[in-house]
Amino acid sequence: MIGRLQEPDVVPSGLSAQKMTDTRTQTPRAVPQPGSPEQQACNVCSDHMITVSWSEKAGWAAPELKPLTNISLSPAASVLHYATECFEGLKLYRGQDQKLRLFRPLLNCQRMLRSATRISLPAFEPVELLALIERLCAVDGPRWLPKDNTNGLLYVRPTLIGTEGGMGLKRPREALLYIIIVSYPNHNPIAQPTVDLTTQDKKFSLFASHDQAVRAWPGGSGYAKIGANYGPALHVQEEATRRGHDQVLWLFGPDSQVTEAGGANFFAVVRNLSGEIELITAPLDDKTILAGITRQSVLELADAYLTEGSEHELAPVTVAVRTLTMGEMILAYEQGRLLETFVVGTAYYITPVTEIDFRGRKIAPLQSTYARTLRNWIGGIQFGVEKHEWASIIKE
């Protein structure tokens, strides 16, 4: 009896931007005018999207660049029941030199891989994801961010979701990667490439979370950019809004350790008891906060240009990645040593914090010189005022 031939093993395909198909829309969408209600709503997508399906057996399929359309999912899809989802957020900038730029986009792609690994979604090569992002930006960027719209922005959102249908908590065997671009306002004057350091800051206040509200904890998933970290935080954000604040300052532990501010990283400039000025932000060691790209950039720029020996008019700082408690911050404020606080992130850029509400007590730092200096430096890179390797130019 002749035995049955054994089928050869199929090696799953890796993500490959070179395999992408390209189908353009025949009905271009209306581009919102800068500052219009449509743009302010942040819900108008550009003409095209990129989708890539994945299965455990076959791996990554050929990417498809195609007209924007809705996604069809099984009502039993893993993402809808078990939150198997991660995403990224980065901006496409139209510089003062009329060129399109992304800011350190490979870091976003590498972070998305870490998030995907944490939520048991398929792996990919970050450089391939970056190639897909750059391609979509090259296709839709010129029309949605024309050359006369210098200092304009678009928001780029890569997302990876588990699509396998069926009940049961398990790693998804099917997934979908997609990338969209959203019309995004640049309505905040702090997001301009240069800012007058003598002008008054726009009010931006934080509401410190109460004891019963915890965003993340050691050993959890707070470091990953997954939707499950954001949805549960909305009820505290609503309380902050009702009290007249912009975002939540998330605290952790009985000593009220400062972690994140909304979806942004938090910094404080404090003159310590020895008279040294510290630039303080929370560490990443326990994986309770997001490793922000703007956070990393601020730390690197401060270490290079604001520390002792640097040629700058500002007083030198010591970059301190360490735990900061509300008790320490309140004491520094009472003693006149809390110089400034600010938040950083893709959405909030670098925003000085003008007030913190901690258990009914108001903390109001008096200056924002370091924050403004840092945002001028980073804004200059993003908008083409300053030539830098962190800026990735999109070919049009």
TrEMBL record:
<keyword id="KW-0100">Branched-chain amino acid biosynthesis</keyword>
<dbReference type="GO" id="GO:0005739">
    <property type="term" value="C:mitochondrion"/>
</dbReference>
<dbReference type="InterPro" id="IPR043132">
    <property type="entry name" value="BCAT-like_C"/>
</dbReference>
<keyword id="KW-0032">Aminotransferase</keyword>
<keyword id="KW-0028">Amino-acid biosynthesis</keyword>
<dbReference type="InterPro" id="IPR005786">
    <property type="entry name" value="B_amino_transII"/>
</dbReference>
<keyword id="KW-0808">Transferase</keyword>
<dbReference type="GO" id="GO:0004084">
    <property type="term" value="F:branched-chain-amino-acid transaminase activity"/>
</dbReference>
<protein>
    <recommendedName>
        <fullName>Branched-chain-amino-acid aminotransferase</fullName>
        <ecNumber>2.6.1.42</ecNumber>
    </recommendedName>
</protein>
<dbReference type="InterPro" id="IPR001544">
    <property type="entry name" value="Aminotrans_IV"/>
</dbReference>
<dbReference type="InterPro" id="IPR043131">
    <property type="entry name" value="BCAT-like_N"/>
</dbReference>
<dbReference type="Pfam" id="PF01063">
    <property type="entry name" value="Aminotran_4"/>
</dbReference>
<keyword id="KW-0663">Pyridoxal phosphate</keyword>
<feature type="modified residue" description="N6-(pyridoxal phosphate)lysine">
    <location>
        <position position="225"/>
    </location>
</feature>
<feature type="compositionally biased region" description="Polar residues">
    <location>
        <begin position="15"/>
        <end position="28"/>
    </location>
</feature>
<feature type="region of interest" description="Disordered">
    <location>
        <begin position="1"/>
        <end position="39"/>
    </location>
</feature>
<dbReference type="GO" id="GO:0009099">
    <property type="term" value="P:L-valine biosynthetic process"/>
</dbReference>
<dbReference type="GO" id="GO:0009098">
    <property type="term" value="P:L-leucine biosynthetic process"/>
</dbReference>
<comment type="similarity">
    <text>Belongs to the class-IV pyridoxal-phosphate-dependent aminotransferase family.</text>
</comment>
<dbReference type="InterPro" id="IPR018300">
    <property type="entry name" value="Aminotrans_IV_CS"/>
</dbReference>
<dbReference type="InterPro" id="IPR036038">
    <property type="entry name" value="Aminotransferase-like"/>
</dbReference>
